[in-house]
Amino acid sequence: MNFRTSRRALVAATLGCSLAFASLAPLATANAAAAADGPSIRVVGGTDANRSTTGWFRQFITVTSGGPSTCGATALTNRWAVTAAHCVATPDGKTKIGKGKSYLLVNPKTRGTGKRFYLDKAIVHPSYKPNSRLQLADVALLKTSKSMGGGKLTLNTSRTSPTLGQAAQVYGFGQTVSGDYGSKPTVLQRGDVEDLAGPTGTVCGSYGSDFQVAKEICAGLPTGGTDACQGDSGGPLVSAVDGRNRLVGIVSSGTGCALAQYPGIYTRVSTYSNWIEAKVFGKFAVTSPCASPCARKKGQSSTITVRNRTTSKGSFDVSTNSKYLRVSPTWGKVKGKKSKTINVKVKTSLKRCVVVKVSSTDTPTKAFKIATNGKRC
Ligand code: ARG
C-alpha cells in the first residue's frame, strides 16, 4: 500500500466520503440517518441555477445491482453525454443499459422530473480503475438510444485553462448539507468556485501529492463553504475559455464537502478531450482553415488537416467529384496523435461548385465545398 495514495482515501473515509468507492448518492435513503444539523445552505454554498442557461445539464440516474443512484452529466451532442466513470463502473457493477434501466433527464425542471432517455452504450475510460484509491481518469461517456435534444456544452481542450483563480461554476442535484443524504435540492444548484491550483500548480488544500494536476482540477473557495457534494458526481464544472463557457471539469471526488482544506477534485477535461472526441466525433479531426464553401480562384489552394486524436494508426482517403481540382496526397496513413495536411488546388478558370470528401478510419466522412472563381455554392 502506498502512503501517498492512501492518505486522501483515509481522510475521506473518516469523513464518510470514500474516494476509492466514491460514494454515489442512493436514491432511496428515506431512512438514512439524516443529521440535518448543518447550516441552511444550498448545494453546499450554492444558489438556484438559471435553467435557461444550463440546458446542457443532465441528471443521470444510474442503475446497478445495488439499485439506482443519482449523478450529473453534461450533453455534448443529441446522443452523447459525459459523466464520471465512478457513476458508471461502481463497486456494485456496471450501470445497466437498455430500456427501463439507467437513464438521463434533460435539464429537469425539478430533481428527477422530465422525459427519460435510456442508454444504448456506456463507455468508461480505459485507464479508470474502479477500486483504486485515487479516482483518476474518472470519465465516462453515455449514449442515449434516442436524440435528447436540449442544450450542449463544448469541451475545453486548452491545456493552459482554467488559470489560477479563474471563476468556475459547478452544477448538481447533490447534497446541500455534507453527509446528509436527505438534503436534496428541488431545483438544480449552482456553486460559484474558483480554480485553486491552475494548470500546473501542485498544491490543492491539504491533499498533498494525492492531487494530480495533470489529470485533475482543484476547485473551491480558499475559505471553503461552496463545493460539490455527494450526488453531484459526473456533473459539470464550467468556466469561460476564450470568452465562451466550456466544460472544464467533471465532479469526481473530495474529502467531505466545502471544507477549506479539502476543495473539490474534478476530472481535468482537457486531459481527456482527445479520448472523448474520438468516441463521440470520430478517430480523426478533419478540418480546414477555409470555411466551406471555400472561395478560391484558379491557381489558389486550400488545405484540409486530418488529425489523429487517438494513439493508434489510421488512414484517410480523399475523393473529389471534379477534375478541376488537384488533390495531394489523395490518401495516407497517420500515426497516433499526428496530423497530415492535404492540399487542394484549383486548376480551372471556370466557375464551379465542387466537393472534396475525406473519409478516414472510424470517422464519419466529411465534405468540403470549394467555390471556384467567384461561383456561389
Ligand atoms: N463522489 C461524490 C459523488 O459521487 C462527489 C464528491 C464530490 N465532493 C466534493 N467535495 N467536491 O457524488
List keywords for this structure.
six-stranded antiparallel beta barrel; 2 domains; 8% helix; disordered N terminus; elongated; mainly beta; 26 strands; 377 residues; Thrombin, subunit H; Immunoglobulin-like; 38% strand; binds arginine; six-stranded antiparallel β-barrel
Write up what this structure looks like:
The structure is a single chain. With about 375 residues, the chain is mainly beta. It folds into two domains: about 1-280, Beta Barrel (Thrombin, subunit H); about 280-370, Immunoglobulin-like, CATH 2.60.40. The chain is about 10% helix and about 40% strand. The chain contains three helices and 26 strands. The strands form five sheets. Strands 3-4-5-10-9-8 form a six-stranded antiparallel β-barrel. A six-stranded antiparallel β-barrel has the order 12-13-14-17-16-15. Strands 19-26-25-21-23 form a five-stranded mixed β-sheet, with no helix packed on it. The longest helix has 13 residues, at about 270-280. It starts with a helix and ends in a 5-residue tail after the last strand. Mean pLDDT is about 90; it is low at about 1-20 and about 30-40. The structure holds arginine (ARG). The site of arginine has 17 residues, from strand 16.
